[in-house]
Amino acid sequence: HKPLPAMLTTRSISFILILGTVPPCTSFLNTFVVSSAQKSKRIESKYSTRFLTHVDTDESQAKPKCLLLISSFDEGVKSSEFLRNGLLEAMNRQKVAHAEKELMESVLNSPCNGPDIAKLEALEQADSSTEISTLRFVYIPTAMYALRSDSTSSPGKQRQRARADGKKRRNAIVAHIQSLIPGINVHAITVDLADGSIKQPEGTDDTTMFPKVNRNKTIVEQTMFESGICEPQTGKEALSIKGWSPHFVYVEGGNTFWLSHCVNNGGWEEDLKELCTQAAAPMYCGKSAGAIIAGKTVQTALWKGWDDPMVVPGIEDPSDWVGVPGLQLVGDASFFPHMDEAYEELLEEKKKTIESPVVALTDQDAFAVKDGLVVDISKLNES
Q: Beta partners for 135?
């Protein structure tokens, strides 16, 4: 393994350790993954309802490659080197996957001659590459687009304000990525899961890098699309390894019930689960509602009463949301963000109403998963 890049020196972030099996691979993160072969450490978040020893899923079910769940971006992520390394590794995974595909095609096209030596060398170079190039970033602000029934603003003004706020937050994330990885170029798009629309493609002054692609693509357009240098036409293409193939997917906080409704109504569950568990999967970061939706159930969003279920027509009653599943990216674990001492009694009471283990995250916590294991990211922040 290559030496890890220089680490940031800031305060530590708490974490929860899940033990499982890590396949051998070249990784920026392997140094900090605790495998099942090592001595089990019972490291536990202050507010977790029980200690999690493994990701409780069917053995045939794929696990996310790289996942980061938080309550707050400013407090929960900005000091974490895990974010930097996760993005670098996502870019490397896709380079390797592309090189492997070309090598396999060379074998199939010429079975008697064996693999193309140039393709084999390209794969070896990709596997060891630390080159920094362009990162494709999909920002999903759907949860914050929910209309508030108690707002004095019109629906149109609420949408405009939410989109402006989302753009501001996306810009802050892009700026932070560029500060973590100097010299990186970020191609960012916003995808609303409510209608699958793509908005605000940015990352270069060269508009030809984001051409509008018609359904009947020319050979040149198809090549540009598959190379990741053109703007995907729909959210389905944006969130696909065979489409735009993003390196980073960030699901913004907001109303969990609206987000869940849009995920289910638009058939996004399988898209997101498949995307996050592929060999060339991007890094998934879920903030607040984006963390809850990654869990086994969204029921925990009812507990503090912050999210109004009435934003979803026909499912206005809180009891309608009991047991409604999330993406289940972390086995049977559910998530309860924005935890603090004021909610200790509430958590003790509510945890009795749910069968799955609950991970409660303060605004300073981060739950980081790598290949089915939780990474001790506090080590990445020690001075």
A: 186
